[in-house]
């Protein structure tokens, strides 16, 4: 199965051509993926912010941003610059250290989770064995940052927002992990690359969404709740809590929360597309197309073509889901806190448990369809 | 010394320092909120140590269970009952401190003894399984460690039932500590439907 571009290997070979040792080449290689992730995440956020403004405008029959660049594409950059040069305020009675550490603790785990997002067979930062489990573990750190900033703001709305965020995140993490577990059961592996490869047999027909429809819906609801998107944006419900845990924040610290929530949204969309929508897979398998065109699968041209198709497909699927999330945000009302917890504990948790049991049973009964 | 070993050494030093200083901070700091957040830092650094030992699954489980669940719940509880009140001075504080110090020192000497007597060197370093450890842990949990695993789950179930009994005060008719009849009023008002028929 080892085909596709391996950029790290080629890069190291290229540097060794200049007479560098493999260790030095590795050290020169190391910062590149990190930088790439940061750039990709930030560009993704800019695109999403623009989409959010434009789609919300369309949903409300407005025009939206219009003057900053063509169709207002430069608007998110203007927003970002504004936040960057704003005064950094720490309230007088706030706890300075925790106030500063909170936003960092919210943002860092989200960016770290990009480690496991694959755009192709070798187009990911690190194919760690624990794969998707790493994301579940990292996303559980976030509530600490939210509680920290809620507490440090010394403001009752902030504290309530932080507590709500933690409660919401804890209760929706369980169905989320259970629906991921059903996928892992079918794949026999935690690695995201294996999860995508397992879905690549027959193009669109072998995607996990057909075998895990319940898991897909549960995962999507939980992912929206984890991102604190409307209908689940209770932690920052502006009519009740001003802005929740962000109330006292301004300038770049506020921007960190902002970035964090949007990066989290894109990450969730990417993971839904990896777990359920075939990841980088084209609806028709690329091998079939290559065979149809009588081209060898290992030709350099085909490899570059496959890699670019993979990246385009992953991003396309993810942004389709982002579009649905934005549409949901501007068309649905917010749930109450008791409805939120009822939905999480009394509906999603039993359903995802049943889904896991049924998946295990089906795997025993039909091993050829449910991951033998 | 190769670059990999140097990196490993630096990581180990930093993580151990964070664990030791953080743990001291948890015990010695006055503010309980700071202690709780530092505890999270200590848990994270222990996960880092596991990573250095090539046990990535254990590290992720450590983060998920200890940081994501235990520490969040501790902080949650502290913030829900965060009253600013001075603790009552205890009369025999000195003798208590002596007793707790001696107990801690005994435990420490026990650990040091284990450290000195145990043979730590692996017989063959090639046998390290790395990424395969997830599968091995699963196999062990469902074969030779099945009973401890199940007993632990029964323990958690007991804790959960206890929490429900404590939280639902209408189950008990009298207070455990004082013996007085329990105040049966709910904290919140009884919920009435918002949109009642106004005929």
From TrEMBL, chain A:
Origin species: Prochlorococcus marinus str. MIT 9314
The entry's keywords: Membrane, NAD, NADP, Plastoquinone, Quinone, Thylakoid, Translocase, Transmembrane, Transmembrane helix
PROSITE patterns in UniProt: COMPLEX1_ND1_1 (PS00667), COMPLEX1_ND1_2 (PS00668)
Subunit structure: NDH-1 is composed of at least 11 different subunits.
Family, as annotated: Belongs to the complex I subunit 1 family.
Summary of the function given for this chain in its UniProt record: NDH-1 shuttles electrons from an unknown electron donor, via FMN and iron-sulfur (Fe-S) centers, to quinones in the respiratory and/or the photosynthetic chain. The immediate electron acceptor for the enzyme in this species is believed to be plastoquinone. Couples the redox reaction to proton translocation, and thus conserves the redox energy in a proton gradient.
Protein name: NAD(P)H-quinone oxidoreductase subunit 1
Entry's Gene Ontology molecular function annotations: NADH dehydrogenase activity; oxidoreductase activity, acting on NAD(P)H, quinone or similar compound as acceptor; quinone binding
Subcellular location: Cell membrane; Cellular thylakoid membrane; Membrane
HAMAP family membership: NDH1_NuoH
Broad class of enzyme this protein falls into: translocase
Reactions the enzyme catalyzes: a plastoquinone + NADH + (n+1) H(+)(in) = a plastoquinol + NAD(+) + n H(+)(out); a plastoquinone + NADPH + (n+1) H(+)(in) = a plastoquinol + NADP(+) + n H(+)(out)
Enzyme Commission code(s) on record: 7.1.1.-
Presence of keyword tRNA processing: no
Organism superkingdom: Bacteria
Major location category of this protein: membrane
TM helices/strands, residue ranges: 27-51, 96-117, 123-149, 262-282, 302-327, 347-366
KW Transmembrane helix (keyword) present: yes
GO terms (BP aspect): aerobic respiration; photosynthesis, light reaction
Membrane protein topology class: Multi-pass membrane protein
